[in-house]
Amino acid sequence: MSSTTQKRATRKSPAERAAEITEAARGIALEQGLSAITLRNVASRVGVASGLVAHYQPNVDALVAGTFTAIVAAETEEVAGMLAALPGPVERLAFLLGTLMDGSRLDVTAVWVEAWTLGRRNEALAGCVREQMDAWQAVLQRVVEDGVAGGHFDTGDLEAGGAASLAWQILGMIDGLTAQSLVRWGGVSDRGTHLARAVEGMVGAVRGSLQPSAG
Amino acid sequence: MSSTTQKRATRKSPAERAAEITEAARGIALEQGLSAITLRNVASRVGVASGLVAHYQPNVDALVAGTFTAIVAAETEEVAGMLAALPGPVERLAFLLGTLMDGSRLDVTAVWVEAWTLGRRNEALAGCVREQMDAWQAVLQRVVEDGVAGGHFDTGDLEAGGAASLAWQILGMIDGLTAQSLVRWGGVSDRGTHLARAVEGMVGAVRGSLQPSAG
DNA sequence: AAGCTTGTTGATCATGCGATCAATAATGCT
DNA sequence: AGCATTATTGATCGCATGATCAACAAGCTT
After folding, report:
1. Which nucleotides of C are covered by protein (CB under 7 A)?
2. CA of B187 and C1' of C8: distance in angstroms?
3. CA distances from B206 to A19, A198, A211 (A)
4. N or C: which end of chain B has fewer CB within 10 A?
């Protein structure tokens, strides 16, 4: 108990400090949820006075919305990047289902679910949620369209907007099943298998082509 | 401004007052969300002092959990009752999909989604959520099993627990899509159609037999 | 070295929360 | 009518939140 406690935080450049704050908010959101993002909570994690956090952010709602976007956009971009490295739409769709359902991103899922509720009282967050859902849907739609164009998928008698609609549908299924895994861990073992089968039917892919094991 | 304001609430029997309180909590949850259930909020809705609400409930967490169960169990029982009146499993599954996806229960959906998040900090609520998910799954599983036994459905090479697993899967899809409709209203017009097609593929039902229009 | 810019502090305000409990008043019983 | 029971009040405590801002001090410029 001597000198480990420094009275005043070392002075840093605005950019650096701002980065620390958003990073701390990110960590809190992933570990304890978006609603755990408070001025004092973030401040103590950075090792700084609460007023400083307020100084770098217009208000807490904005910090929450920004943190949501940071977390989710990073995930989207990461997955989209991995998709680009795969040879074709079948592999991409299979990889998408497998990756999103493997339970390794439960913390991000929890952020999604909480954002749906918090968006009710945080207008900025609500906008970000819609944006990020659109981004995910766009990624999925692209894969579906490529598959149809290449003859790997057959969406049947779907109208023009079929791929878009299908992408929303698949996204909704993934959301629901991952959210479910948030609450019911051991409930179902082969979520991925069933989902793959369902999606195969929807996009007219060859049976088994989207199975996680085949990815 | 004369006598419309009564200073003291009329004295009522414990059972009656308790019912008023749970009913008020229910209304608040449906209109403003589970997190809007506070002692003062409920009390003012009943027209009573905050202390009285606390007197009728062990704590707020219990009231929230109980309110969740009341809302969701009522829905489950209502739908289950309607199912019983239908002739067979195909009609029942079609009705289930159509009813749950028609957007007439967005308030209940919002309660579900919020409960998933709140369950993280409210142990009693978490237990209720699991209970109610089990109840829904049981209803669905029953329909699927009946359909398989009657030869209407064909779950293919599924192992013994196939119907249970399938029921979880379908439930997850419904949850995800309804939750999605909570945020993205006009996004997709034919959610029901796509879901019906997906489920048809999963349970091996005749194509079009689960379409909402055919329900 | 002096001075100025600005990153940083922490106390402060208003608000809301759950919970508690002595005091109060309405009811029903004798 | 008198009394015992009990439903009801509302003030109160401790705690947490977001926001604000005068005061402070570190570092840069001159």
Report:
1. 6-11, 16-22, 25-27
2. 46
3. 56, 15, 23
4. N
